[in-house]
């Protein structure tokens, strides 16, 4: 008899992970459901994951745009009452992206052999995240897979638009910084050493302290560039290693949240993702505790994720969601008030959606405002830095001209 390994949540809200004997996945899931366990991952340990010669793309990811388009196609065909296997076959044929095309074709084969769609999706974790798989499972169980897929498409599109907005806003400042660094490298490594040779040819020339400082820094870069490069790479790797630890991530994310402008923007984005994702999961039929497990990984901030973890633990003990989030002190009063109202009126999903819409709007406005301010400020600062360096080098040239009587 096959042995199935599963991960889920029991009736007390605790995470469970174990194995169960069953004839097939449906029987295993039915047994676990009878025991009060909500399963969000189930796999057959006795079955070879990958047949000889069969290539899977579980380690490759795809663009959000391609995933969203494919999801909409699935939803449209299922809404037209086209059988799931035929829908997957048609979408696989229409998909141009090679990795996604291969994945859908393989998923179609697994579904055709009797595997639930959400289990087949789990074979490709780089393409289909936990939120996608959990919502598809809820859709299959409730018979509303077409509706769930449409919500998933809208969700991925909205999150992608928000991400692209932030990335596009950061593109110009990054280019400006790189361009300025290139100019500084040329000045310090090429131009200034040549100017030093000229200065040395004029014995009566007295250099000012700022010119000597620029020349000294140039000498350090020219003579010890390899040590600076190795030290910079080492410092970066140490920082990444520290930041990957739980304590390091919590400390760094706490620092980010306290920064004047970046902190506010980071919190806006995290709260928007939290409310949007939780709303989508709950509307898709995913239980609150399972939804909280998924949504903690979406906020991309260890401090807020810890607050969500604490809220989830309190919810499993019968408390409301608004109370624990308020105690954490990490969520704005507006969010707490809207969630509290949603719980009291039974319209939590609607209230969460309204909060995410409002915060998406705030993020866009904040990004636009930051971009409009950052661009001229960066131009002024970079101009001043380059200007000071050029002035430090040009002034001795003028003095040399005076000494020579030109």
Q: Could you give the topology of this structure?
A:
Blueprint: E1 3-9, E2 15-21, H1 25-34, E3 38-44, H2 64-79, H3 84-94, H4 98-112, H5 117-121, H6 130-142, H7 145-200, H8 209-243, H9 246-258, H10 262-283, H11 288-295, H12 302-316, H13 322-328, H14 333-345, H15 348-404
Antiparallel strand pairs: 1-2, 1-3
Helix pairs in contact: 2-3, 2-7, 3-4, 6-7, 7-8, 7-10, 7-15, 9-10, 10-11, 10-15, 11-12, 12-13, 13-14, 14-15
Plain-language structure description:
With 406 residues, the protein is mainly α. It has two domains: 1-47, Ubiquitin-like (UB roll) (Roll); 151-406, Receptor-associated Protein. Helices cover 73% and strands 5% of the residues. The protein has 15 helices and three strands. The protein has helices at 25-34, 64-79, 84-94, 98-112, 117-121, 130-142, 145-200, 209-243, 246-258, 262-283, 288-295, 302-316, 322-328, 333-345, 348-404; strands at 3-9, 15-21, 38-44. A three-stranded antiparallel β-sheet has the order 2-1-3. The longest helix is centred in the C-terminal third of the chain and has 57 residues, at 348-404. The N and C termini lie far apart (99 Å). 31% of the residues are buried.
